[in-house]
């Protein structure tokens, strides 16, 4: 009898005399106990925040963008944004913008990519846009043939699809995304794990009443852009998927920071970043409230590309926008040492996330995909 089964019986005994009677009846019938999950089974929540620059993550609000010309911000709005997110120091500013990241994650986990401190993270693909970025992140390597966001089914297998085919994770992988190109990135003609996509009919084996209501609200509200809805819907849908599907690996892809940046609305860009940080905190708090996830779940947060670094080109990214290959990563939970904000060190690439996610779940991704980038060296994992 392993510890989990003991724990289960203790839990049942905790119901009181009626619970014990029920247990005896249960055993008397010769019915086997529900399969207990392996002791200490690890879980992963991977989150991407599309097009969120390392500059805002590590420096917080940049007041230089709070005007009509550079940031599309009306003059009367400027003092209000400063009131909400401004502060005297970089440390205080970034904590106001992303309080979960700079209290919980920075104190007990790690952050990579602050170039002001010599930590470098970047994509290895040469396109510096979303589909090539997500392909690299989720398959572990860039594909030189994927250079646009054209909706084409991905010939490459993502680490989600691969893990969904491994016995320890089979049927326990879910994804929740705002951008409607993800069904192509995951190649839903081939992959089988549940995928929820904003503004679309999703491929789920079951839809809870809560999720049905979320989708009803989503249908009633005008979408923010042609190919994705507001992040708030994906936030709620992801919470529901965690509650109802109980995955070992969940991937959530949010998109508002990129949308507002392309639209040259720096105020909306920073407010959407602040919301993303709150979503992260709420997911994390939910997971920590659940015995099967508490202290067993590793959170990894990153992005798909950077953006320009000047008031003229911060709205854009791609090979013609200098430095928009620059990214960042953050992590918290088992396997993540409390290094805080990493200074210096060897550069890391987005592709390293795939093997790292697999390693956190006890799998060696590079045996199957030798071209995948290695596990992030900052993590404490068996390699
Ligand atoms: Zn973009």
**Name of the CATH superfamily of the largest domain:** Alkaline Phosphatase, subunit A
CATH architecture of the largest domain: 3-Layer(aba) Sandwich
Number of domains: 2
Major β-sheet profile: 8 strands, mixed
Kindly state the number of beta strands.
10
- CA-based shape: globular
- Helix and strand string, N-terminal first? HHEHHHHHEEHHEHEHHEHHEEEEHH
Structural class: alpha/beta
CATH topology of the largest domain: Alkaline Phosphatase, subunit A
Strand order of the largest sheet: 5-4-6-1-7-8-2-9
What does this structure look like?
- With 383 residues, the protein is of the alpha/beta class.
- It folds into two domains: 1-36, no CATH class; 43-368, 3-Layer(aba) Sandwich (Alkaline Phosphatase, subunit A), CATH 3.40.720.
- It contains 16 helices and ten strands.
- It has an eight-stranded mixed β-sheet, with helices on both faces. Strands 3-10 form a two-stranded parallel sheet.
- Helix 10 (182-185) links the parallel strand 4 and strand 5 (195-197).
- The structure holds zinc ion.
- Zinc ion binds at residues 51, 130, 258, 262, 317.
Structural topology:
Layout: H1 3-13, H2 17-28, E1 43-49, H3 54-59, H4 68-71, H5 78-85, H6 90-97, H7 99-108, E2 110-112, E3 121-122, H8 130-139, H9 159-164, E4 173-177, H10 182-185, E5 195-197, H11 209-220, H12 231-245, E6 249-254, H13 256-262, H14 266-288, E7 297-302, E8 329-332, E9 340-341, E10 348-349, H15 352-360, H16 365-368
Parallel strand pairs: 1-6, 1-7, 2-9, 3-10, 4-5, 4-6
Antiparallel strand pairs: 2-8, 7-8
The protein binds zinc ion.
Zinc ion binds at residues 51, 130, 258, 262, 317.
């Amino acid at each position: 009898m392993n510890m989990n089964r003991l724990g289960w019986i203790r839990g049942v005994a905790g119901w009181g005399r009626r619970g014990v009677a029920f247990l005896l009846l249960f055993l008397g019938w010769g019915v086997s106990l529900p399969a207990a999950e392996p002791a200490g089974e690890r879980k992963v929540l991977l989150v991407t925040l599309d097009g969120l620059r390392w500059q805002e993550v590590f420096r917080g609000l940049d007041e230089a963008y709070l005007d009509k010309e550079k940031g599309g911000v009306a003059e009367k709005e400027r003092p209000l944004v400063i009131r909400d997110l401004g502060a005297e120091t970089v440390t205080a500013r970034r904590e106001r913008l992303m309080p979960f990241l700079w209290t919980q994650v920075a104190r007990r986990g790690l952050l990579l990519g602050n170039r002001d401190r010599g930590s470098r993270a970047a994509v290895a693909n040469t396109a510096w846009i979303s589909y090539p970025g997500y392909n690299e992140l989720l398959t572990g390597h860039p594909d030189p043939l994927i250079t646009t966001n054209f909706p084409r089914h991905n010939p490459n297998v993502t680490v989600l699809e691969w893990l969904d085919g491994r016995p320890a994770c089979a049927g326990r992988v879910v994804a929740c995304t705002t951008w409607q190109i993800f069904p192509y990135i995951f190649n839903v003609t081939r992959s089988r794990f549940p995928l929820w996509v904003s503004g679309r009919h999703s491929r789920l084996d079951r839809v809870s009443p809560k999720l049905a209501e979320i989708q009803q609200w989503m249908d009633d509200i005008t979408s923010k852009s042609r190919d994705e809805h507001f992040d708030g819907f994906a936030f709620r849908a992801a919470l529901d998927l965690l509650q109802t599907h109980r995955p070992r690996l969940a991937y959530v892809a949010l998109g508002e920071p990129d949308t507002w940046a392309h639209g040259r609305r720096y105020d909306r860009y920073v407010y959407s970043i602040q919301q993303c940080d709150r979503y992260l905190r709420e997911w994390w708090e939910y997971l920590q409230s659940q015995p099967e996830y508490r202290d067993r779940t590793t959170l990894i947060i990153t992005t798909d590309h950077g953006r320009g670094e000047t008031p003229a080109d911060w709205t854009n990214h791609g090979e013609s926008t200098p430095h928009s290959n620059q990214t960042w990563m953050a992590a918290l939970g088992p396997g993540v040492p409390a290094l805080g904000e990493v200074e210096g060190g060897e550069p890391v690439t987005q592709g390293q996330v795939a093997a790292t996610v697999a390693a956190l779940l006890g799998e060696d991704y590079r045996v199957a995909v030798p071209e995948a980038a290695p596990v992030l060296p900052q993590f404490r994992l068996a390699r």
